[in-house]
């Protein structure tokens, strides 16, 4: 019992040293080796009120992604494409480090990152989201909600967004024969839709530098690490995106 | 016209008029909060967390203050909700939940302090306020906040002349009066009642009775969730003294 208390105190006072002692033996305090990711569960279709959804848990981190399809006007600069609007929300509920009010910078950074990956033409042809050129398009709202924030939310978000997109059914739109008298909105048939034509499947992996390179860092490790890096790869093995937020030196990045 | 109750007296999802939806509860899954709970009734899914009692903000009162932050995920409803910074509807529901629990929490025991509740709706399929209240009750129990009783909430409505319990989103579209009631089951005290439509005075008593019965029926289910959590926590105490 006394040893346990001593270990807890040691961890509180010298968290960095505490980790180093473990890493010397190639093990992390939660029992994983440096390369091990946490157990991951992917459950598509959990939110039945959405057009496509997925719940991802990565260790204790969990995020839900829900996709809603809506009619929208096509963008002004290109009238035969549709919209993809990703948003990542980190509500105060998911961690005590977020407070009610304007979205934290972290949420905006994640939204940007997800937008960069999923809004590119290499992911999906936005022409597929056009219904009537110049008149009507689909707006695909991809909302990711963090439920529990325990490190490496990036990977969980990418996984959730990918699986949710794969579960989307684009409903069949019944258009009137005369397009000029398009009054109100056309009717849709959800049973007769088709899946989104996704060009590739991406997954991401995050590493943190803490003495050595650690795969899939948890929150404690993220807070202690000197650098972290996220690499997004697709099913063909090519790197799609890379991101290394915060300060890190070239030495660390090369590792 | 859509049929809400079949000739056999069964509802669209196969329930009888006075039957609740399937309930699922999970208590204390978040380590970062003092209390947390997930509660699901049918397809309405809510997560609630409680932090506190902690140092009060603003004017120090003799009794503890309860504040509630209510949020709905953008994908929770049939029509996507634009996430707004100041959503009046959410603020209204939040203040309702806060005032409901102010009458159930023994606030005198927490002078000059504040209890913070956060509610997140993941999927809304009718009866959101009621399900949120049930989730918050469990989260408060998990946080060990002193309460006079469980707060159980349930909705009731009238569809085609029949009183129905715990309506879902489809049944809410029948435009019947929807009554949400929160009760303290042991004393049958109503701590919150909400109805946003007109209803004939003769119908109201029946609706209220039905909602109270619904709330009371939920009590053993909520109790079981808390007991399961407590039992799971027992080994953490170490060997019995």
List keywords for this structure.
heterodimer, A: 255 residues, alpha+beta, Ribosomal Protein S5, domain 2, 6-stranded mixed β-sheet, 4-stranded antiparallel β-sheet, 6 helices, B: 241 residues, 5-stranded mixed β-sheet, 9 strands, 28% helix
Structure commentary:
The complex is a heterodimer of chains A (255) and B (241). Chain A is an alpha+beta fold. Chain A has a domain of 160 residues: GHMP Kinase, N-terminal domain (Ribosomal Protein S5, domain 2). Helices cover 24% and strands 35% of the residues of chain A. Chain A is built from 6 helices and 12 strands. In chain A, helix 1 packs across helix 2. In chain B, strand 8 and strand 9 form a beta hairpin. By secondary structure, chain B is an alpha+beta fold. Chain B has a 5-stranded mixed β-sheet with strand order 1-2-3-5-4. Chain B contains 4 helices and 9 strands; from the N terminus they run E-E-E-E-H-E-H-E-E-H-E-E-H. The model of chain B has no long low-confidence stretch (mean pLDDT 90). The interface between A and B is medium-sized, with 29 and 32 residues. Chain B: InterPro entries: ExoRNase_PH_dom1, ExoRNase_PH_dom2, ExoRNase_PH_dom2_sf, PNPase/RNase_PH_dom_sf, Ribosomal_Su5_D2-typ_SF, RNase_PH. Chain B: Belongs to the RNase PH family. Chain B: It is found in: Cytoplasm; Nucleus, Nucleolus.
Summarize the structure in short.
The complex is a heterodimer of chains A (255) and B (241). Chain A is an alpha+beta fold.
Count of DSSP-assigned helices of chain A: 6
Helix content of chain A: 10-25%
Q: Report the uncertain regions of chain A.
A: none
CATH superfamily of chain B: GHMP Kinase, N-terminal domain
Count of DSSP E strands of chain A?
12
The shape of chain B, in one word, is globular
Largest interface: A-B, 29 and 32 residues
Strand order, largest beta sheet of chain B: 1-2-3-5-4
Described by the principal axes of the CA atoms, the overall outline of chain A is: elongated
CATH topology of the domain at 32-178 and 188-200 in chain A: Ribosomal Protein S5, domain 2
- Beta percentage of chain A is 25-35%
Rg value of chain A? 22 Å
Structural class of chain A: alpha+beta
